[in-house]
Design brief:
By secondary structure, this protein is mainly α. It has one domain (7-133). The chain has six helices and no strands. Helix 4 runs antiparallel to helix 5. The radius of gyration is 14 Å and the shape is globular.
Length: 135
Amino acid sequence: MSITLTDQDKATLRTAAYGAVSLMAAAGAAGSPHKIATDGSIALASATGLVGHVLAAKSKDIKLYGKSVAELADHVLPALTAAMSLLKQQAPAEAGNFRSTVIVAIDAAARTHQGQPSPALAEMARKITEALDAA
């Protein structure tokens, strides 16, 4: 069975996933936000399945804005919940793929493989996970 997502659906997935990485970079601004963003983005690029195809597509539809972490979070956290909701409805197997892809990306961004993330990064990761699980 082929799954067809609308352009808006794809934009929501991309905004949610890349927004999660952007939130991690913003929360880790005291450290190395560029390294955080790079590590998280590389993890997103390793996604497979429908999610991998959507995230790999060259697109200018990712809308990430805000002058503060709070403004960015106000946009990204609901997008994460919306992405999970739409995948649970249209492609249930891909919902788990999307969730695990984002979790791997935030783990890479927090560099949890190198020890404990900073308290700010750990809290942002918790908020992202909570938004994923809210759907």
